């Protein structure tokens, strides 16, 4: 699950078991399991995860990277968020440059990636059809994120996209809702939210999100969380 002290490992392990056994949303259960059975041709030799995906990272994390949901052939295949797909390649390169990850790539759950000061999670834990969870599915899943943040005692949430931003605001019932934007910041009770365009191929291939833009948000998150910035050329070891 994770790397260094801080939060209760027992509580996180209990939450992980609850997440991975969840079958609350019939549409998501049917889809994630069908994708795992049928597979993509490039991954026909893989045994897909095909279950809800738990968060992972440093139990002492002050920063949470909050995504939308697992990718059908990414985390739904590998069992770890942003692992084994192009979005993950882009994100982990940025996490490495900004001192949050000891590796610049995350391809499988066995690659021993170590995060420092950071936890990765998502608003919805199952891969949804067309990558679009329903409001009901989001609301069924958000209690997991609420418990996760409480256990971690994190105080900064980097929201990858408008869906994650809206979901994070719902965790603290913020009204009126601040508008999402890249680099936007908002207070949500005890949390500071920072907006970031999602590292989808649609955004990264078109230049909507560039590596410097991602790095700026991640470094700002470090500042807000009171974490020292890494020295140039010396990412986490």
UniProtKB/TrEMBL annotation:
Gene3D superfamilies: Uracil-DNA glycosylase-like domain (3.40.470.10). The keyword Membrane does not apply. One of its GO terms (molecular function) is DNA-deoxyinosine glycosylase activity. GO terms for biological process: base-excision repair. It comes from the Bacteria. Keywords: 4Fe-4S, DNA damage, DNA repair, Hydrolase, Iron, Iron-sulfur, Metal-binding. Residues 54-218 form the Uracil-DNA glycosylase-like domain. The keyword Transcription regulation does not apply. Belongs to the uracil-DNA glycosylase (UDG) superfamily. Type 5 (UDGb) family. This is Type-5 uracil-DNA glycosylase. It comes from Rubrobacter tropicus.
């Amino acid at each position: 699950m994770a790397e260094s002290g801080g939060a209760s490992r027992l509580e996180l392990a209990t939450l992980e078991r609850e997440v991975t056994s969840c079958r609350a949303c019939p549409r998501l259960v049917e889809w994630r399991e069908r994708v795992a059975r049928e597979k993509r041709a490039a991954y026909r030799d893989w045994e897909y995860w095909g279950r809800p995906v738990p968060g992972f990272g440093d139990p002492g994390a002050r920063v949470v990277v909050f995504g939308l949901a697992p990718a059908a052939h990414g985390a739904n295949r590998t069992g770890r968020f942003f692992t084994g797909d192009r979005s993950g390649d882009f994100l982990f390169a940025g996490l490495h440059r900004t001192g949050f990850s000891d590796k610049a790539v995350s391809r499988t759950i066995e690659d021993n990636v170590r995060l420092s000061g950071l936890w990765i999670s998502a608003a919805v834990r199952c891969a949804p059809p067309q990558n679009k969870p329903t409001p009901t599915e989001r609301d069924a899943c958000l209690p997991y994120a609420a418990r996760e943040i409480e256990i971690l005692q994190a105080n900064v949430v980097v929201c990858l996209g408008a869906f994650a931003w809206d979901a994070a605001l719902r965790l603290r019932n913020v009204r009126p809702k601040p508008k999402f934007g890249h680099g936007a910041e908002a207070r949500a009770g005890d949390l500071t939210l920072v907006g970031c365009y999602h590292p989808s191929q649609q955004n990264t291939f078109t230049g909507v999100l560039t590596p410097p833009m991602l790095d700026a948000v991640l470094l700002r998150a470090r500042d807000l969380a009171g974490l020292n910035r890494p020295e140039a050329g010396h990412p986490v070891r």
